[in-house]
Design a protein that fits this description.
NADH Oxidase; single chain; four-stranded antiparallel beta sheet; 45% helix
């Protein structure tokens, strides 16, 4: 798939088949996350791969009962490793760069999943402390999680804002 086709095909999917994900596909998703740019190339993030049914149910509960988190074969939880980033960048690394690193890695993983015929939905609404407790993550800060599997639904594209509404400055001229 070409990049723009992947971008156009990405949807927030909240219903999944029970079909397991092939290990090779999972590895490719992980590789994509690992290829994401990061501040100072520190890769100040960690990712937990959750397949355990009980843990997924707990995560769904921590995500304010978003049940699809538990229904997908895999849940990926992206954590910011603020200590890793703060060693080089101080407070800005701790508060911002590590979060950016985790979210860019999540975005790369998500796009790779689409390219591989998998479906995802980004989950940002959850109780951080509960997620930390469920996954024994210590000081790692959970910033995003997403369910991962084969789609059991095919949502229509969500409406998007006009490009002119988002971008300003030296905007490209059109004929």
């Amino acid at each position: 798939m070409e990049l723009f086709e992947v971008l156009r095909q990405r949807r927030s999917v909240r219903a999944y088949k029970s079909q397991p994900i092939e290990e090779e596909k999972l590895k490719m998703v992980f590789e994509a996350a690992n290829l994401a740019p990061s501040a100072g190339n520190l890769q100040a993030y960690q990712v937990r791969v959750v397949r355990d049914e009980a843990k997924k149910r707990e995560l769904a509960k921590a995500a304010f009962d978003q049940r699809f988190v538990a229904e997908a074969p895999v849940c990926l939880v992206f954590f910011a490793d603020s200590e890793r980033s703060s060693e080089k960048y101080g407070e800005r690394g701790k508060e911002l760069y590590s979060v950016q690193d985790a979210t860019v890695a999540g975005s790369f993983a998500m796009l790779a999943a689409v390219d591989l015929g998998l479906a995802t939905v980004w989950v940002g609404e959850f109780d951080e402390k509960k997620v930390q407790q469920i996954l024994n993550s210590g000081n790692l800060r959970p910033v995003a999680m997403f369910s991962l599997g084969y789609a059991a639904e095919h949502p229509s594209p969500a409406p998007r804002r006009a490009i002119e509404e988002i971008f300003s400055g030296d905007f490209p001229q059109t004929d």
